[in-house]
Design goal:
The chain has about 300 residues and is of the alpha+beta class. It contains eight helices and twelve strands. It has one domain. The longest helix has 29 residues.
């Protein structure tokens, strides 16, 4: 578990030198630097969210591969620090027992399913925080739910993990270290001073307060239309141009080979009654209920007077 940061120029928020982000370490290591950077095409990026979703993706690629190679119909997992259980169920193609190229197909399917499941799991984390779940037992977390950099940062991590796992010349950690720097450069990463300026520029409009800021700007774009678009701070003089939307993970590869996957979630939290009522169901799947919960949260945000991208 990595602790993400708010994109606010407030107490305790680290703004690292984007050229000195350290070496990525699967599962967290002392060689890593985290915090908030700013990019011209991707807005604020939370490096801890990038690293965390990348590692979740690697884990879920591996779990999917093992399950399919063994012919298992399902597996389950929990993200570190969370009580919710994710139950993944596969439907195999009718001719699966006759296929002679199973290993090749499983590798392709796993590389597609891993980032899809990781994005679902990290999106679920944002949903839990919106409904008031506390992961440390005491700290307020609603203010971080769908903060404007969260989902896009997760997406960067999921995409980089797949690239790193497919890198023929480097191990995962080295490929991730290089990939993070390359992706930030493609997005037009700015010096630390610009990141702080971008956060300070929206003080009073996108957030208020200091120790526990009230986040008045959110981003609910989870890729339901096939891509995720970042939120840019307007009027950053060093930057020009449009935001760089990135494709959301899809199940196209699975469908091409005749696989289907179902992602069921058992909340296992005190606040699950509120979530069930908002979803209008006590049996939750990412595919069916994320869009319903998203509309509920957008309406809730509007009633609170928040702004949001979607």
């Amino acid at each position: 578990m990595r602790l993400g940061c708010l994109p606010t120029d407030t107490f305790g928020i680290p703004f690292p030198d984007p050229d000195r982000l350290g070496k990525h370490a699967y599962g967290l290591g002392l060689s890593e630097a985290g915090g908030i950077v700013y990019t011209c095409k991707g807005g604020h990026v939370d490096i801890d969210h990038v690293r965390g979703c990348a590692d979740a993706t690697r884990y879920l690629v591996s779990r999917t591969r093992k399950a399919l190679m063994k012919g298992q119909r399902s597996f389950s997992f929990r993200l570190t620090g969370e009580m919710s259980r994710h139950i993944i169920t596969f439907t195999y193609p009718p001719d699966w027992s006759d296929r002679t190229d199973k290993e090749r197909i499983v590798n392709e399917v796993s590389m597609a399913a891993g980032p899809y499941l990781a994005m679902n799991a990290t999106t679920w984390h944002e949903i839990l925080t919106w409904f008031g779940v506390h992961f440390g037992g005491f700290e307020p977390e609603f203010n971080s739910a769908f903060s404007w950099e969260d989902v896009y940062s997760n997406l960067i991590g999921a995409r980089l993990a797949v690239e790193a796992l497919n890198d023929p010349g480097r191990d995962y950690d080295k490929a991730m270290t290089a990939g993070i720097q390359r992706q930030l450069n493609e997005l037009g990463v700015q010096p630390r001073s610009v990141a702080i300026h971008a956060s300070d520029k929206v003080r009073g409009s996108w957030y208020t307060g200091n120790l526990v800021p009230d986040m008045k700007m959110r981003n609910f774009d989870i890729g339901l239309d096939g891509s995720i678009t970042p939120t840019l701070v307007p009027g950053i003089g060093e930057c020009a141009g449009e935001p760089m939307s990135l494709p959301a993970p899809s199940l196209d590869v699975l469908h091409r080979y005749g696989f289907k996957v179902r992602h069921e979630i058992k909340p296992n939290v005190f606040e699950q009654g509120r979530i069930y009522r908002a979803a209008e169901s006590k049996k939750l799947t990412a595919e069916e209920h994320f869009p319903i919960l998203l509309e509920y949260m957008k309406q809730d945000a509007a009633e609170r007077g928040y702004s949001f991208d979607d």
